[in-house]
Amino acid sequence: MRKITIIIALVFSITSGGKLFAQTTMTGVTVIGNKIGFSTNTSKEIKQVFRGKYANWSTNNQVIIVLPASKSTSAEVVASSIYGNTVSGVQKYWLSLVFQGRANPPVFLDTDEEIINYVKKTVGAIGVVSAGAQNIPRNFIIAINN
Amino acid sequence: MKFKHLLLLSFIILSFQFSQAQKSNTQFSGYGYLEYELDFSGGPTSYFYLGEHSFFVNSKLNDKISFLGEYVIRFNGNSATSFLPSIERSLVKYNYYKNHNIIVGKIHTPVNYWNDSYHHGRLFFPVMDRPISFSYLVPLHTLGIQFQGQNLGDLNFGYDFVIGNGISATDVMSDAKNTSFTAAVHMKPTDDMRIGASFYYDFLDKNRSGIHSGHSAPRTHYTGKLYTGALNYTLTSFSFANFTKTYEILNELSYNTTSTDSLGLAKNFANFFYAGLRFKDKHTPYVVIDFMKIAGNDLHTYPYEVGTFGVGYKYEFSPLFNLKFQVQYDRQMSNHATHKINKFFGSEIQLAYGF
Known about the structure:
Number of helices of chain A: 5
CATH class of chain A: Alpha Beta
Number of domains of chain A: 1
CATH architecture of chain B: Beta Barrel
Order of helices and strands of chain A: HEEHEHHEHEE
Low-confidence stretches of chain A: 9-25
Largest sheet of chain A: 6 strands, mixed
Largest sheet of chain B: 16 strands, antiparallel, barrel
CATH superfamily of chain B: Porin
Distance between the termini of chain B: 43 Å
CATH topology of chain A: D-Maltodextrin-Binding Protein, domain 2
Radius of gyration of chain A: 16 Å
Structural class of chain B: mainly beta
Oligomer: heterodimer
Helix content of chain A: 25-40%
Number of strands of chain B: 17
Number of strands of chain A: 6
CATH architecture of chain A: 3-Layer(aba) Sandwich
Shape of chain A: globular
Shape of chain B: globular
Mean pLDDT of chain B: 89
C-alpha cells in the first residue's frame, strides 16, 4: 500500500511538472506594492499575482505588474523564485499571454532602483526586486508567509 | 434583433468609459516566418516560402478598457502585388468586474486551445502549421460580442460565451437571419496545464462560407456540384494542453455535425496530437499526428479523409526567434467510390520571429 502511495505521488509529481515537491518560499527577492490592499500574503498567492491571475485588486485599483527586464541583474533570481522558470521562459510566458489578449503586458525595468521608483509613484503597482535592494520605503514592502 | 440591442448597449457602455479615458499606453509588435520546403512526391522540388506577417497592437485605453488588434499581410495570388492585408483581430475589451470582461469586435473564436492561444503568431506554434481541421471545420473568427471570465477560483476556471456573425458572414455584413453561438469553458489546475471544452452552433441558410471563417479553403477534394440549401452546423471540441519545462503535450479533438433535409445528420471527426520533449531550455524534438474524417453524407466539407504524421525538432535561439525542422508524411483519400489515395512526403524548415 505504501509503495502504491509513493508511486502515485511520483506520477502526480511528474505530470504536474514537479509541483508536488516544489519549493514554496521566495528566496532572494523582495516584493513591493503600492495600495494593493494587503501588506502580507502567502508566497502561493503572490506567485499567482505575478502570473497575471488578477486584473484588479480588492481596492478596485488595476493590477500593474513590474518586473526586471531580461538584462537586469535581478532577472534570473526573480524568474527562478517567482516563476520557477528561466528568464527566457518568463519572457515567453508573457509574450504568449499578451498575444492571447488575456492580460495587459507587465512593465519591464532595468534596475531595482527604477522598479522601486515606479512602484512608489504608481497606485496599484506590484514589483519585485532583489533581496538586497536599497531605499525601499518600509510601508511598500509586502511580507511573505509561506 | 436582441443581439443588435446588446451590441448597442455595449457600445454605449464603452463610449461612457472612453469619455473617462486616461493617457493611452500602446505597444506594437509583430510576428513573421520564412520557410524552405522540400517535397519528394512526384519528383523532388524545393522552394523558399515567405509566410504571413502579423502586426500586433495592444493598447490600454484606461484602467478598465483595452484595445487589441492583429493585422496580417499574407500571400494572395489574386493581388497585383501577390500580397493582401487583412484584419484578423480587432477588439475592445471592457473589464467590468474582477476577472470578468465584455469584448466586442473581431475575435478568434475560442473553441479550442490552439485558436485561443496561437492566432497568427508562428513563433508560438509548437509545430509547422495549424491542425488540418482549421482549414475545414473550425470557425476561426467571429465578429460579435464575447463574455469572458478567467482565472476564477483555485482551479483557474474560465468561460467564454460568444454571439456573432456566423460562418457565412463577411467582416462587414451578414445576410443570415441568425447569429452563431459559442460556449466554452476551461480550467487550469496547474500553471502549465489547461483543459477545455466548447460547443459552437450556426445555421447556414445557403451553406455559404464567408471569408475568414476557416471554411473557405479551396475544396480541391470535391469537384461535384455544391449544395446551396440550408444546413445546421455544430462543432464540439475538447482540448488538453500541458506545456512544462520538460515536456509538452497538446491534443485537440473536434466532433462536427452537419444536418440537412436531404442527407440527414453527418458526423465528422478530427484529432490533432502533439508531443514534445524539452531539454536544456532550447531544444524540443517532437511528433505530430493529425487526422480528419468527413462522412460520406456531409454537404458542407464533403467526404474526405486526410492524415499527417510528422517528426520534428524545434530550437529556440531566444524567446523571439526559433527554428523548426519537420519531416512529414501525408495521406489523403477524397474519392470514397474509388478509394483513390494520394500520398505526400516532404520536409520543411521554418524560421519564426517576433519583432
